[in-house]
């Protein structure tokens, strides 16, 4: 922190100031967090324990579920605890850490979603070369690139914010530390940094989202030459992927591909992609994937017999 920074902590206003509303949200978000952890960890354990789910598609699905678990854990517990506090304070260091972790896991998720789209393209459009190209080394390389990409993206974000002068006020009208509310509190002109945020986050999301939608369009168009059964199975898988891509990218584009300014709807949008989406992802994948459901049933029966 610079010498002109006399802010050592921030005050979060949270989602609501109504005590009754806070208690209701505490129960709701506690249930959502529990469902998120159970659903995503169940997918990870099922993929690890089921020999039939050893394909690259399920490897990336397990990675995505693991990231959703970590991402949700970085946001939800503090949100839930703050709903019971009268004064919601967060230290400067904890605020910067939360910002870094949020963008780290978000960046990792983006690369994993790209890897899943590439995997489906090879499996459907180039089935004869699929196993040769998508070997374990390539899968692990994608996962490594995801971490490097997420870390780089998050580091760029934090570098611009960390050394900004904060001389008061220190009240953030949000429930987490994010770029827009922090830039509004800085005691300096943040126009250039705002442009950088749009370029590093928003523009990247728009480009990748557009490429993913186009790629899935190519995949779906190629299904014309497949049999009816193969077309049905591939269509079910691709629709699940497209739903997850839309749920992830649309809120992110709204938040980061615009001038850095706080809107009243920002809290609801942030709740959706930080709390709701990690819970919906395992539901989307398992409800539309018969092989995953069968493997979960077998694992569940195996655990019951062991007890």
Secondary-structure blueprint:
Elements: E1 9-12, H1 19-49, H2 56-82, E2 89-91, H3 92-125, H4 130-133, H5 136-162, E3 171-172, H6 179-185, H7 191-222, H8 228-256, H9 266-287, H10 290-306
Parallel strand pairs: 1-3
Antiparallel strand pairs: 1-2
What does this protein structure show overall?
Helix 3 packs parallel to helix 7. The chain is mainly α. Strands 2-1-3 form a 3-stranded mixed beta sheet. The chain has helices at 19-49, 56-82, 92-125, 130-133, 136-162, 179-185, 191-222, 228-256, 266-287, 290-306, and strands spanning 9-12, 89-91, 171-172. The longest helix is centred in the middle third of the chain and has 34 residues, at 92-125. It is globular and about 65 Å long. The chain has 10 helices and 3 strands, in the order E-H-H-E-H-H-H-E-H-H-H-H-H. The N and C termini lie far apart (55 Å). The model has no long low-confidence stretch (mean pLDDT 86).
